[in-house]
Write a structure and sequence with these properties.
The structure is a single chain. This protein is an alpha/beta fold. It is built from nine helices and eleven strands. The strands form two sheets. The protein has a six-stranded mixed beta sheet, with helices on both faces. Strands 2-1-3-11-4 form a five-stranded mixed beta sheet, with helices on both faces. Helix 3 packs across helix 8. It starts with a helix and ends with a helix.
């Protein structure tokens, strides 16, 4: 079985390297986090379909840890996740960064700027250990010796947004793509010192699966990776 699989992989690599993109036929299984799915992922899908019209795309949105596990198991070809992903078996390339901001229901936090140690009286709405963003944020809190009095943990970004809007606590959320909710008065942004880190994102795939095709897909990811606006449409492909 392994010999046959290796021969098939070598054949597919040769086909992808020397064939025109418009004649390549294969599946592309991509895993992304929720914030990618709700911002630039539609634009990436449009560019892949334009460049590789015969490629069948399968998209999965989840937290970093389950996506990593599925990549290792061979159930995904490529994942785009926070840079917290650490594994020598992967080829990784930085593709973008999410700018994060502290948010709450308007009026829940009285001051526009607060020290992190003064914020712990509020409930923290956080992503847990399955999330790369959650891991980065929780490590930052631990490094400052900060222990919130109360936390609500969820691996679902939409759930955290909903709880924040409802006034259940404070959270760190993707800033720019939520600007319509901020402008509508559903969320209030405030500053916290010291400043918490933004979240770099990487595209990753298994080293033994490297191919011209996957390198090209990563290049397309870098072109599209823009967390500043929700539900983006790729105007470049629409004009063609």
């Amino acid at each position: 079985y392994l010999i046959a699989k290796n021969l098939l992989d070598q054949r597919n690599t040769a086909v992808e390297r020397f064939s025109r993109p418009d004649v390549i036929e294969r599946r592309l299984r991509i895993g992304v986090t929720e914030v990618a799915a709700m911002t630039w992922m539609p634009a990436l899908m449009a560019r892949i379909r334009l460049a590789y019209p015969r490629v069948i795309i399968e998209l999965e949105a989840d937290a970093m840890v389950p996506l990593r596990d599925k990549l290792l198991a061979g159930d995904l070809d490529l994942i785009v996740v926070p840079s917290e992903l650490e594994d020598s078996r992967f080829v990784k390339e930085v593709v973008g960064q999410v700018e994060m901001g502290w948010m709450c229901k308007p009026g829940l936090v009285a001051r526009k700027t607060m020290k992190i140690h003064d914020l712990v009286e509020h409930t923290f709405l956080v992503e847990g250990a399955r999330s790369g963003t959650g891991r980065i944020f929780n490590r930052w809190l631990k490094g400052l010796g900060v222990q919130p009095a109360n936390t609500i943990v969820s691996s679902n970004l939409v759930a955290i947004i909903a709880m924040t809007v409802s006034g259940l606590g404070v959270s760190r959320l993707p800033h720019k793509c939520l600007s319509p909710m901020i402008d509508a008065g559903l969320l209030q942004v405030f500053k916290v010192t010291p400043q918490a880190p933004d979240i770099p994102y990487v595209a990753a795939f298994k080293k033994e699966l490297r191919s011209t095709f996957l390198d090209d897909i990563v290049s397309l990811v870098k072109q599209c990776c823009d967390f500043s606006q929700a539900f983006q449409i790729d105007t470049a492909t629409r004009r063609r």
